[in-house]
Design brief:
Strands 1, 2, 3, 4, 5, 8, 10 and 11 form an 8-stranded antiparallel sheet that branches. A 3-stranded antiparallel sheet has the order 7-6-9, with no helix packed on it. Helices cover 44% and strands 20% of the residues. Helix 2 runs antiparallel to helix 3, helix 5 crosses helix 6 and helix 8 crosses helix 9. The protein starts with a strand and ends in a 6-residue tail after the last helix. The chain folds into 2 domains: 175 residues, Jelly Rolls (Sandwich), CATH 2.60.120.280; 109 residues, Homeodomain-like (Arc Repressor Mutant, subunit A, Orthogonal Bundle). The longest helix is centred in the last third of the chain and has 19 residues. With 305 residues, it is of the alpha+beta class.
Length: 305
């Protein structure tokens, strides 16, 4: 199917794991440094950029991302982005195409809707695949076939586009695994991973980037996952866990406030006191006293009148 878009755009439909995907190709998918998009813009589909040679600096939703030869950059739909060629490397060559994951109908099976959600979640979280040389021969074949348009070229392109999607999905982790599964079901794996990160690390200076590195997604996507799972920001969730642990220690140990603040990950005792009062409504000392009185009342035997 062709669309008039300053020349033409070829839309190649493929289907895998019950998901319908459109690969959108311009008549030239191979670009050099002079064709970099320097003005901020966005698209309604995922954009895939494979760096065949050279280096580039991409800015995606305000975040700088550097790519080099052999990298595959995945830009989510509606993300504002632009790029510049690295000043130290003028030989940039990249392949660019668009991937649109079509939302299933409301009447689609639950497994199909789940597969769609996982596919979008996975693609949104990729950001950069560093060792992606497997894509180069596929992209070269697509580019060559578009140029020559020999008999049967559309069927050939469809096969190459399907191969590209398969290779892309092979990078999915266990939570997003789509290939080889007849049915996709939601699990609580994300929640277990996040809980492990927060409860095993709350006493340390853990950052959002540390979480992103742990679960192998971008920093931006890690923030979205935390909000989806807990309904609060990363900073708020970390504060909740630290205060929860501080409450337990105030109630069940005789540790002084300075020690509690340290083992619960607070920068200082004064910051711990301020944060505790702001979120709990009383100081740590008052909280300890109130819980102590409560325990004493529960443990004191009732006297017969």
């Amino acid at each position: 199917m062709y669309r008039d878009n300053g020349g033409y755009q070829l839309v190649v439909p493929v289907s895998i794991a019950g998901i319908n995907i459109e690969i959108r190709l311009n008549d030239v998918i191979r670009q050099d440094g002079s064709e970099c998009a320097v003005s901020p813009h966005n698209h309604g589909a995922f954009q895939l950029k494979y760096i065949a040679s050279g280096r580039a600096l991409h800015v995606v939703d305000g975040e700088q991302i550097r790519t080099a030869q052999g990298n595959l950059l995945v830009i989510p739909p509606r993300s504002i982005h632009y790029e510049t060629v690295d000043k130290n490397c003028s030989d940039l060559v990249q392949y660019s195409l668009f991937l649109h994951v079509k939302a299933p109908l409301d009447t689609a099976a639950e497994s199909t809707r789940a597969a769609y959600e996982r596919a979008v979640d996975f693609l949104t979280g990729i950001e950069v695949i560093k060792n992606a040389s497997i894509f180069l021969p596929i992209l070269e074949s697509i580019s060559r076939e578009i140029r020559h348009k020999q008999d049967g070229f559309f069927n050939y392109l469809q096969g190459m586009c399907l191969a590209l999607v398969v290779e892309l999905l092979r990078f999915a982790d266990e939570e997003h695994r789509l290939l080889g599964q007849e049915e996709i079901k939601y699990t609580d794996t994300w929640r277990r991973k996040l809980n492990s990160f927060f409860y095993d690390g709350y006493m340390n200076d853990i950052k959002l980037q540390d979480l992103a590195d742990t679960i192998n997604v971008s920093r931006r996507h890690a923030s979205r996952i935390v909000f989806r799972e807990y309904g609060v920001t990363y900073a708020k969730k970390l504060m909740e866990v630290r205060l929860e642990q501080a409450k337990y220690k105030l109630t069940h140990t005789d540790l002084d406030l300075r020690t509690i603040s340290q083992v619960c990950g607070f920068q200082s005792c004064s910051y711990f006191t301020t944060a505790f009062k702001k979120n709990v409504g009383m100081t740590p000392t008052d909280y300890r006293a109130s819980t102590s009185h409560s325990r004493e009342a529960q443990s004191t035997p009732l006297l017969k009148k």
